[in-house]
């Protein structure tokens, strides 16, 4: 009951947003392409939220987040092919298993590499992300159906507004309660001063591993949603640059802000895809000139992000700290 009571405003706001989106989808006021962009924004928000737990709340600089995103996507797609998943009910356990696979791998990888800090940790996670990309490129040598560099095809398109929206809302609420729980407070203490946290008796290794595992779990959930939204996977979708996309969302939104990640995720997807629609085909690549300029302007205006360590009262995610 406390979980629902503390999130009441967020649930009401979410129900209103869902009603608006559903009306737009049913009336045909937005094209199928725009609908797909809207659904992808929930994927980007969830995956970036996982990185925010790792980096924004615990201070662990990870550059391999797209690797766990890819593990979740390929695991869910493979399990769907094995069990011939074609319905939403059958997809839900596959969705969880995709996240669990990424979380388990995050735990295994985190045990040795989380002993590192700062730039050394970033380089280690970057190396892991590159390793995952190489393995996905050659995955058909081990399991033919994964497709390797040709890509994984034949994935049924199951993810719709209800699946993407409800999954995002539920996991945002879970993350919110986790962040404002005892564990979340310990994560933030470690970020502020790891040495002092150790002196006060906090098991920093255990807490960092817990945050890293949960962040990877969210990335895996995002990857599984992505797989069943686009019906096709290719290793290039999970390279180093995709990790940078998620990092940009976290930094622009504000590290240590769930609300900021939501806003920045929506903004980032809107800008990327909006420019694709607005610019003529012959000058489409110019968007990669406009986007860095926009990022520079945002960082000069808000160097700590749009909502650094702040949460929206309207969304029921706490209060400004």
Mind sketching the topology for me?
Layout: H1 2-6, H2 8-27, H3 32-57, H4 65-83, H5 88-113, H6 118-137, H7 161-179, H8 182-192, H9 194-199, H10 204-230, H11 240-253, H12 258-278, H13 287-301
Describe what you observe in this structure.
This protein is mostly helical and 321 residues long. The protein has one domain: ABC transporter involved in vitamin B12 uptake, BtuC (Orthogonal Bundle), CATH 1.10.3470. Helix content is 71%, strand content 0%. It has 13 helices and no strands. The chain has helices at residues 2-6, 8-27, 32-57, 65-83, 88-113, 118-137, 161-179, 182-192, 194-199, 204-230, 240-253, 258-278, 287-301. The longest helix is centred in the last third of the chain and has 27 residues, at 204-230. The protein starts with a helix and ends in a 20-residue tail after the last helix. The mean pLDDT is 89.
Labels describing this entry:
321 residues, mainly alpha, ABC transporter involved in vitamin B12 uptake, BtuC, 13 helices, 71% helix, globular
């Amino acid at each position: 009951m406390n979980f629902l009571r503390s999130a009441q405003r967020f649930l009401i706001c979410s129900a209103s947003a869902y009603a608006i989106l559903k009306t737009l989808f049913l009336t045909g006021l937005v094209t199928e392409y725009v609908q797909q962009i809207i659904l992808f924004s929930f994927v980007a928000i969830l995956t970036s939220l996982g990185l925010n737990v790792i980096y924004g709340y615990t201070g662990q600089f990870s550059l391999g987040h797209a690797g766990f995103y890819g593990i979740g996507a390929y695991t869910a797609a493979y399990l769907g092919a094995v069990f011939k998943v074609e319905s939403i009910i059958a997809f839900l356990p596959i969705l969880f298993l995709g996240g669990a696979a990424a979380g388990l791998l995050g735990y295994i990888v985190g045990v040795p590499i989380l002993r590192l800090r700062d730039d050394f940790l970033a380089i280690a996670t970057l190396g892991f992300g590159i390793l995952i990309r190489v393995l996905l490129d050659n995955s058909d040598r081990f399991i033919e159906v994964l497709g390797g560099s040709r890509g994984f095809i034949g994935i049924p398109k199951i993810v719709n507004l209800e699946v993407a929206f409800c999954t995002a809302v539920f996991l945002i609420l879970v993350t919110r309660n986790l962040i404002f729980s005892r564990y979340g407070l310990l994560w933030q203490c470690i970020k502020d001063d790891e040495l002092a946290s150790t002196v006060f008796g906090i098991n920093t290794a255990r807490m960092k591993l817990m945050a890293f595992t949960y962040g990877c779990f969210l990335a895996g959930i995002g990857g599984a949603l992505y797989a069943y939204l686009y019906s096709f996977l290719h290793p290039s979708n999970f390279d180093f640059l995709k990790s940078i996309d998620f990092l940009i969302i976290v930094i622009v939104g504000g590290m240590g802000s769930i609300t900021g990640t939501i806003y920045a995720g929506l903004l980032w997807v809107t800008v990327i895809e909006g420019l694709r629609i607005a610019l003529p085909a012959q000058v489409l690549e110019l968007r990669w000139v406009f986007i860095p300029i926009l990022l520079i302007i945002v960082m000069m205006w808000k160097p700590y992000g749009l909502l650094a360590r702040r949460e929206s009262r309207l969304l029921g995610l706490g209060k400004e700290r």
